[in-house]
Amino acid sequence: MAQRIDVKDVNIYYGDFRAVEGVTMTVDPKSVTAFIGPSGCGKSTFLRTLNRMHEVIPGAYVEGKVELEGVDLYGDDVDPVAVRRNIGMVFQRPNPFPTMSIKDNVLAGVKLNNRKISRSDADYLVESSLRGANLWNEVKDRLDRPGSGLSGGQQQRLCIARAIAVKPQVVLMDEPCSALDPISTLAIEDLIQELKKDYTIVIVTHNMQQAARVSDRTAFFNIAGTGKPGKLIEMNDTATIFSSPAEKATEDYVSGRFG
Amino acid sequence: MSTDTTTKDSTEYTRALLTTAEPRRRRTDRIMAGLIWSAFALAMIPLVSLLWTVLFSGAGRMSVDFLQYSMRGIFGGDPSGGIYHAIMGTLIITGCATLISVPIGILVAIYLVEYGRGPLARAVTFFVDVMTGIPSIVAGLFAVSLFTIFFGPGARFGLIGAVALSVLMIPVVVRSCEEMLKLVPNELREASYALGVPKWLTIVRIVLRTSVAGLTTSVLLAVARVIGETAPLLVAVGVTDSINFDPSEGRMMTLPVFIYRQYSQGQAPCREDQVNCVADIALQNAWGAALTLIAIVMILNIAGRLVNRWFAPKTR
Question: B186 to chain A: nearest residue by CA?
Answer without folding.
Answer: A95
